[in-house]
UniProtKB/TrEMBL annotation:
Cofactor(s) this protein cannot do without: heme
Binding site for heme: 261
Keyword Magnesium: no
Pfam families to which the protein is assigned, alphabetical: p450
Protein name: Uncharacterized protein
Family, as annotated: Belongs to the cytochrome P450 family.
Domain of life according to the entry: Eukaryota
Gene Ontology MF, one: oxidoreductase activity, acting on paired donors, with incorporation or reduction of molecular oxygen
Keywords: Heme, Iron, Metal-binding, Oxidoreductase
Length: 346
């Protein structure tokens, strides 16, 4: 879903099945994986040969080649559309300012393609990661889910669809998003920075060329900044001025300062609209509990073992395991007892 949103905003196309024979979704996933891989040559130059032994260099070469082919195809298609007078999208705007008349410097072809990759990779990953965590927390906190649904449905009363115009008064929705950013920043360790000269940091002398990695995940759980930091308490943001746009360093999922994310407004708009549409259209009646202690596990799997012996319905298991006729996913009952006895005799 998020990949389609970014694709349509960027090129006015959806790349579900691949473009020009290139599986774009799988390619972007590989790009994100490679960007997160540690290359020992970056820190110990004389060991850069290790990347050839472990096939990292060959993976990089293949992905770079495939990405370039995809981007070239997208740019060529967009040039043809622009010449035909079609509406401009992100690529069209970049092509329009490529000559440098508006920016004061020419935008080289490689720079244009690199910016496009930022849009596809960073936008897609951060948005869907955040939405997954939001839904996970709401399913584990049914009262928060109910409050959010009441707010969204109340403000959108009588409307078939929630629109951007409805978001302004959805204060609880914004609080839910902020609390999720606090506990689950989409990038827990922010992209490293490097000092360009000697500097003092908290009284320590830091030489030039020193890398610093900011741990947004730990900052969001800092005991000195937050009350009960391990608990999901979205109400704290209802009467708080703390925001995630780089002025409050307790909450920095999008970084801050000169290297802050330039697409915060777009990402937040997509997250807010998507979340509002989900809770407006669908009911999530079944409560979900995550047991994370020894006592809870003992209670579920021993003390009240029979009560917890059933399986929730699973579409994937029904489709792939012959209507859940296996021993792992079949509902608890006479059939399960029979099939279980068969597996125990094998």
């Amino acid at each position: 879903m998020t990949n389609n949103i970014i694709s349509r905003v960027t090129t006015r196309r959806a790349y579900n099945g691949g473009d020009s024979g290139i599986p774009v979704k799988a390619l972007l996933e590989e790009l994100l994986i490679l960007l997160g891989i540690f290359s020992i040559g970056d820190y110990i130059p004389w060991l850069k040969w290790v990347d050839k032994i472990n096939s990292l260099d060959s993976r990089l070469k293949k992905v770079a080649k495939d990405l370039d082919a995809f981007l070239e195809s997208a740019i060529r298609n967009k040039k043809a559309e622009c010449s035909a007078g079609e509406a401009k999208d992100f690529v069209g705007v970049l092509l329009e300012i490529q000559d440098g008349k508006e920016t004061g410097f020419p935008l080289q072809r490689d720079s244009l393609k690199a910016i496009l990759l930022n849009s596809f990779a960073a936008g897609t990953d951060s948005i869907y990661t955040t939405l997954e965590w939001i839904m996970t927390e709401l399913l584990m906190h049914p009262r928060a889910m109910e409050t959010l649904q009441n707010e969204v449905r109340g403000l959108a009363q009588g409307k078939v669809e929630v629109t951007e115009d409805d978001l302004g008064n959805m204060h609880y929705l914004k609080a839910v998003i902020k609390e999720t950013f606090r506990l689950h920043p989409p990038v827990p360790l922010l992209i490293p920075r490097e000092s360009m000269e000697e500097v003092k940091l908290l009284g320590y002398h830091i030489p030039a060329k020193t890398q610093v990695i900011i741990n947004a995940w730990t900052i969001g759980r800092d005991l000195f900044s937050w009350d009960d930091p391990e608990d999901y308490q979205q109400d704290k943001f209802l009467n708080s001025n703390i925001d995630f746009r780089g002025l409050n360093f307790e909450l920095i999922p999008f970084r801050a300062g000169r290297r802050g994310c330039p697409a915060i407004t777009f990402a937040i708009m997509v997250i807010e609209v998507t979340l509002a549409k989900i809770v407006h259209k669908f009911n999530f009646a079944k409560p979900v509990i995550v047991a994370s202690s020894v006592n809870a596990a003992r209670d579920i799997m021993k003390t009240n073992n029979l009560v917890w012996s059933n399986r929730p319905k699973c579409k994937m298991a029904d489709r792939l395991l012959y209507d859940s006729k296996d021993v792992a996913f079949s509902p608890y009952g006479e059939y399960w007892r029979k099939i279980r006895s068969v597996t125990e005799k094998v």
